[in-house]
Amino acid sequence: MNHSMKTYADLHTHSLASQHAYSTLSELCDAAKSKGMSAIALTDHGPGMPDGAIAHHFFCLAGLPDTLDGLHFYKGAEANIMNYDGQLDMADDLLDRLDLVIASYHIECIQPKSIADHTSGLIKIAANPHVDVIGHCGNPVFEIDPEPVVKACAENQKIIEINSASFKVRPGSDAICRKVALLCMAYKVPVIISSDAHSKWQLGDHAAAIAMLESIHFPQQLIINGAPGRTEEFFESRKRERCNK
Ligand SMILES: [Zn+2]
Ligand SMILES: [Zn+2]
Q1: From the CA of 132, how far away is ligand 1's center (Å)?
Q2: Which terminus of the chain is more solvent-facing, meaning fewer CB atoms within 10 Å of its CB: N or C?
Q3: In angstroms, what is the span from residue 106 Cα to ligand 1's centroid?
């Protein structure tokens, strides 16, 4: 088996600003550097989650430098999907201030319904120009029909997250993530591999996601944080596209 898959950034992390997370931004950065990473995105939970960050946290992120102790720093959010019409818990102008917006279903914010509802909700999210990444869509609690979701991501140039923590904390995710990843290969949808770290000890823990992607020979070229400098290139081109709109 080919064990050459490696990650160079962690783009889904939570700090103390999410009240059920346990490390500071500084500690997360130190952990990323100690793992040889060149970039990190801070993506605390949106204010729709009872213990998520407040809206002002996201507004003020712009005041932080773009480089922290030599690490490229991207200011992000994990916005909560609040209903199956695709409504998020953050205003569009707030999302527009950020470098990276992940949108995810969480049980604290939305009740699970049918596979059809979960699927159509994510298709609406894929069409939202303020969203970059669909988060942990392999969660069986919000089971989806993967193909139309991946197709919508292809049509709208969205990214799918392969959330390594899901394999442990959202049991049953591995089989669905595998299907999603195979479809990403077929539709050429890029992915990020992420830890969803809620503490410095989890940062960069991508092993479970990497093992699954290696088992299906997932192409390294489709992994945004899978080559040196590629994460930075992605954010540069995202910035250029936003400026041209
Ligand atoms: Zn999440
Ligand atoms: Zn998260």
Answers
A1: 14
A2: C
A3: 6
Distance 128 CA to ligand 1 centre (A): 18
Q: What is the pLDDT of residue 51?
A: 96
Both tokens of residue 136? 């942990």
Residue 213 contacts by C-beta under 8 Å, 6 or more apart in sequence?
5, 162, 181, 191, 193, 223
| Tens-digit pLDDT profile for residues 217-238 | 999 999 999 999 999 999 999 9
Q: What is the DSSP letter of 189?
A: -
For residues 141 and 107, is the Cβ–Cβ distance under 8 A?
yes
Residues 132, 240: Cα–Cα separation, whole Å = 14
Residue 46 Cα, ligand 1 centroid: separation in angstroms?
A: 10
Quickly count: other Cβ atoms within 10 Å of residue 218's Cβ. 23
Put residue 86 in one of left, alpha, beta given phi > 0 → left and psi -120 to 50 → alpha: left
Distance 187 CA to ligand 1 centre (A): 24
pLDDT of residue 242: 86
Residue 105 has pLDDT above 60, yes or no: yes
pLDDT 10s digits, 33-66: 999 999 999 999 999 999 999 999 999 999 999 9
Angle at 122 between CA 171 and CA 178, to 5 degrees: 40
Mean pLDDT value across residues 92-115: 98
- Per-domain residue ranges for the chain? 9-244
Fold (CATH) for 9-244: TIM Barrel (3.20.20)
Place of tokens 């059920």: 20
Ligand 2 centre distance from Cα of residue 150 (Å)? 20
